[in-house]
Write a structure and sequence with these properties.
homodimer, about 5% strand, globular, alpha+beta, Glutathione S-transferase Yfyf (Class Pi), Chain A, domain 2, four-stranded mixed β-sheet, Glutaredoxin, about 210 residues
Chain lengths: ~210, ~210
């Protein structure tokens, strides 16, 4: 398997965690989001993934984009160490937690959105930072509400086993800390983040541990 | 089953299509996104879905948020008329197409984002419209690239059976048309949109056909 990745890409970070939790080896192919005008926009990567977004996974002749689609694919083809619970209601909860980050929070402060904000809209750097922090806070507040008031939350987001939801939670907390968001209002999120951070699978997927880290 | 919905919510529209394709009856509970300062933000709906976003599905005592998590849940609990293909690579493709809309395109021009743009950022109406159109165009261009150059695309997004990808494609085209985006550059998307629009399941899920339509 080959993973097209960038050390600080939140979506690639999710997939690295999932691969590590499942104990799957992979070749990391770095695509630098800022170098050469954005390598993800170049011909070479575009031929791999026409969406020009990271990550993409190559496996058995198939190229799969979208972090959550990749993790579901891994779940179906490598079912050992499941990242989704067995019951449909539990699976729905884990997927909804993951999507609350991957669809409703993370895309809003993505690189291309920030570029459009400072470029076409012409906002100043402090307004851009305010934008990032607003959507990071809003996403973490939703996550906290979903986790804190549900008895299915355990040591991790769903019970006592790491799941797809944790694969998304940890990179989003990384983003929040990177952009100086105060995480004190989200104690359940941060307790789960601390529990995940004790596991080698999460440690080894961290941006700072990647070959392309700067 | 009870679906918390709003006639023009793109995410609720996806779930209505899926329910119709599977032939599942449901009670529609309208939550008005603009009335009373946004009914989705009120105590009543917040108690149902702490994310304060539509849609949510109540089934058998479970409340599920997030349109894609709801559709996956329906797929697992009501497998007749599958909305995902049988093979893992095909399932991954359909999920990636769906996420390219549901995660990478639609959230960027959502109501709360537009509110923040005109409120906190203070942009004018024409800049707001430009923002909406930019992300609608960008999302449709990605979808066109993913669909046009893949032999797995058929009458619908994946082969000749409607799938989760089509449940997302049709509402996104509705949004594009509503905000006067020229859809001519996306012929494959529009051909699939036309094919879907011939089916009663899609017709009956259309915003204009909902009891809460204005």
């Amino acid at each position: 398997m080959k993973l097209y990745t960038y050390f600080r890409s939140s979506a690639a970070y999710r997939v690295r965690i999932a691969l590590n939790l499942k104990g799957l080896a992979y070749d990391a192919q770095a695509v630098h989001l800022l170098r050469n005008g954005g390598e993800q926009l170049g011909e070479a990567y575009r031929a791999v993934n026409p969406s020009m977004l990271l990550p993409a996974l190559e496996d058995d002749g198939n190229v799969i984009g979208q972090s959550l689609a990749i993790i579901e694919y891994l779940e179906e083809t490598r079912p050992e160490t499941p990242l989704l619970p067995a019951d449909p209601a539990g699976r729905a909860r884990v997927r909804a937690l993951a999507l609350s980050i991957a669809a409703d929070s993370h895309p809003l402060a993505n690189l291309r959105v920030l570029k459009y904000l400072t470029g076409q809209v012409g906002v100043a750097e402090d307004v851009k930072l305010g934008w990032q922090q607003h959507w990071l806070r809003s996403g973490l507040a939703t996550l906290e509400a979903l986790l804190a008031n549900d008895t299915r939350t355990g040591r991790y987001s769903h019970g006592d086993t790491p799941s797809l939801a944790d694969c998304c939670l940890v990179p989003q907390v990384f983003n929040a800390q990177r952009f100086n968001v105060d995480t004190a209002p989200y104690p359940t999120v941060m307790r789960i983040h601390a529990a995940c951070s004790e596991l080698p699978a999460f440690q080894q997927a961290h941006p700072a541990q990647q070959p392309d880290a700067e």
